[in-house]
Amino acid sequence: MAPQHGPRRARIAFSDSAAKQLENITSEAEIHALDRALVVVSVDPDIGEALPGNSASPQLRQYADEVERVRLLYWVTALRTVVVVAYIEV
Predict the structure, then answer these.
(1) First-last CA distance in the chain
(2) Which long-range contacts (CB under 8 A, 24 or more apart) does 65-68 make?
(3) pTM above 0.85?
(4) Distance, CA of 16 to CA of 72 (rounded, Å)
(5) Hey, which end of the chain has fewer CB within 10 Å, N or C?
(6) Residues near 68 by Cβ (< 8 Å), separated by ≥ 6?
(7) What does residue 19 show for φ and ψ, rounded to 5 degrees?
(8) Residue pLDDT, tens place only, 7-49
């Protein structure tokens, strides 16, 4: 009998500005908090709330984890890749 697998996780990519923010993270606690938020968004890319915008640009979403005090701004591509635009501490 073949093993059952859960749903496929979304791939995470970072914009240039988000990548620069990542370079500045030195605290283990901040890395842990960001990792946790990225896992949540990769499992369910629609979890964040949609931010107001227009149809000419990608629909930005915001995910906030009040326990870990992390906020991610991201958009989801047609192939379900999550592109993190910014990682913001709450």
Answers:
(1) 46
(2) 65/33, 65/36, 65/37, 65/40, 65/90, 66/90, 68/32, 68/33, 68/36, 68/37
(3) no
(4) 14
(5) N
(6) 32, 33, 36, 37
(7) -65, -40
(8) 678 899 999 999 999 888 888 988 999 999 999 999 999 999 9
